[in-house]
Amino acid sequence: MYFFLFCIVTLVLMWFITHLHNIYNHLKEFPAPPIVPVLGHVFDYVDPKKALSILTNNLVNHGGVIRQYIGPRKPSLATANRDFLQFLCRHSKYIGKAKYYRYLKPWLGEGLLTSDGHQWLSRRKALTSSFTQSGVLRNFVGVFEEKSDQLIKEINDLSSDKANVHLIMKRFTLDVFCETAMRVSLSSLANSADSNYAISIESVCEVIQNRMTSFMKNFDFFFQFSSDCTREKKNLAVIDGMLHKIIKAKHQERRQIGNAKERKDMLDLMMEVDIEGKTLSSSELRAHVNSFTFAGYDTTSSAMSLVLYEIAENPSIQEKLLEEQMQIFSGKLNNASVTYEILHKMAYLDMVIKETLRLHTIVPCIGKRATKDLQYEGKTVPAMLNINICIHAFHHNPNYFPEPDKFNPERFADETKIDPFAYIPFGVKPRQCLGKEFAMLEMKCALSKIIRNFQVVKVPDFQLDLRPKLVLFSANGIWVGFKKRSVTDENV
Ligand code: HEM
Fold first, then answer.
1. Smallest CA separation from ligand 1 atom 30, residue
2. Does ligand 1 come within 6 angstroms of the Cβ of 435?
3. What is the pTM of this model?
């Protein structure tokens, strides 16, 4: 018995040592910035304000694919090289998610964002085809508009002439999401007080962020004894409880009226999905709704807030946006309603959003790993090694975007000049964001209304304090001022 155990432990150890040896050997084929013994590149990432620019410089100065050592953690590769990215996309069959996505699993289960292989592929195909059906997004525009009107009212009622718009936008995006995904009226905007659901989502996101940055909580063993683990469990119970009730009610509704509903929400569409002759189970539905919430809530709210910040900083760009709105709505600014077609006419707003997503890359890095050794330009990319695709560094690489720190929407005037392997705010194929079109329409609807109703102005002395987490955030909020446009604007 002991001999048998000894053999198993020895075999596991041998496998582990060979595996690490293989990784370290192959990694040497890639360049690396100067390495401090034992600590590796830890000092590059100590100051979160500088971490992204240091990583970007390292990548640009060393050819775009480098090895990284963060203390005793397993080493990884980082990239901001479009050829290498194209190579990874070509081999997508052998590319899975980086290991740290497991921090999301207690919440997102085997949803789209966290699953891999056949399970991911079959669900992605089914969900993509139901979300790209004509009319689905068109139907959501009504909700975007209704919630944008509430947003305008909230800004109108502000007691101060300036606001941390990120907080307002978070409530707006969550309201939009709950209404479009489940037809649940959270009304966190109107009530201003956050619901338990919203508070729980915020709290779970915080725990996930803490795990990303803490060495000890990185290990499941230590995490389970932490207060964060208790907090996560408590809040997941709230989220699950709410979704459970909604899904049960939906099942009942479908038993009564079948598929005959005119205005379908995301959950209706998910319930109609047919994967190899089966529908999604209740726990799968919860995993997908949670994945959509996580993927769409903080990202869209940060993006919209940063657009407002940039147009406050750049009044001439804001003027041009207003002109476009006046042209589209023939001078009738304040109360005109939008449609799916009208939102597609807002070409300059589209350019401003795209440039904001470049300059302030909302998802700064995504993580992949190869499931087998791959050959790239005579070097081996070892299996099971995390590969950090540093989207921020792609977007700030002067070889792809000259004067990368300048806010210049004109870069997007001719989309054919944009390299699809260098501009990747919504991730890379085949795992590109499923909510891209949804997010663009939602942002355009709200921003168009804000621009038509208010002049967005800079708050003196306010400077963004941007830090990379799963989603880019500003530690001191995102502050802008609002001045109501006079009624005469309608007659300009
Ligand atoms: C400005 C807003 C948004 C940005 C910048 C953004 C960005 C991204 C990025 C970079 C990824 C790839 C993640 C990875 O590979 O690890 C992704 C995936 C995803 N996003 Fe978004 N996203 C946004 C809004 C949304 C919205 C509104 C939704 C849902 C309604 C959504 C749903 C998803 C889903 C389901 C995935 C996983 C796709 C898959 O793995 O098959 N996103 N997003």
1. 435
2. yes
3. 0.92
